[in-house]
Amino acid sequence: MAVTITISQAELKRKADLAYDNKAYRVFLADNSTAALNAEDTATAWLAEELPASNGYAAITGTVTTGTGAYDAVDARYEFPAIVATFTATGTGFTYDTLVIRIGTEASVAGILVEAPAVTLLAGQSKTYTITLGEDD
């Protein structure tokens, strides 16, 4: 006998609000080539691998705006507006292999995106990531 569980849109909203609503976020780039960290490692460990603030690199920060989330029927999840993180190099540029997302002051990171091979941005080059925070069943 198969059992199907359906989670209500209201429950998805409640959980998403607890996780993200009105919380600060930090999207940053890291060089994980020697540390060999993974998504289960602490935010402190990842912050130690963040690129130095030079040659145009700066983390993308902001706050998830209260009351801006909505249910997306196509993807069957509750989502907040996308975070658009654009990194632009100056000077000699920079190289990274991981994009890291941290929400609030949590001890863990919300997620990572590994680039293989590593990405090198030279002066004047940019790379944009679009990140959607959401809750689904």
Radius of gyration: 17 Å
The profile of the biggest β sheet is: 4 strands, antiparallel
Strand order in space, largest sheet? 2-1-6-7
Report mean pLDDT, rounded to a whole number.
95
Distance between the termini: 21 Å
How many distinct folded domains? 1
Given the helix and strand composition, which structural class is it? mainly beta
Instruction: Count every helix, treating DSSP H or I runs of 4 or more residues as helices.
Output: 2
Q: Give the quaternary arrangement of the chains.
A: single chain
Shape: elongated
Secondary structure elements and pairings:
Blueprint lengths: L8 H12 L3 E7 L12 H6 L11 E4 L6 E3 L4 E3 L3 E6 L5 E10 L7 E11 L4 E6 L2 E3 L1
List the keywords.
mainly beta, four-stranded antiparallel beta sheet, three-stranded antiparallel beta sheet, 2 helices, 9 strands, 13% helix
Fold and architecture overview:
The chain is mostly beta strands and 137 residues long. The protein has one domain (9-136). The protein contains two helices and nine strands, in the order αβαββββββββ. It has helices at 9-20, 43-48, and strands at residues 24-30, 60-63, 70-72, 77-79, 83-88, 94-103, 111-121, 126-131, 134-136. The strands form three sheets. A four-stranded antiparallel beta sheet has the order 2-1-6-7. The protein is elongated. The model has no long low-confidence stretch (mean pLDDT 95).
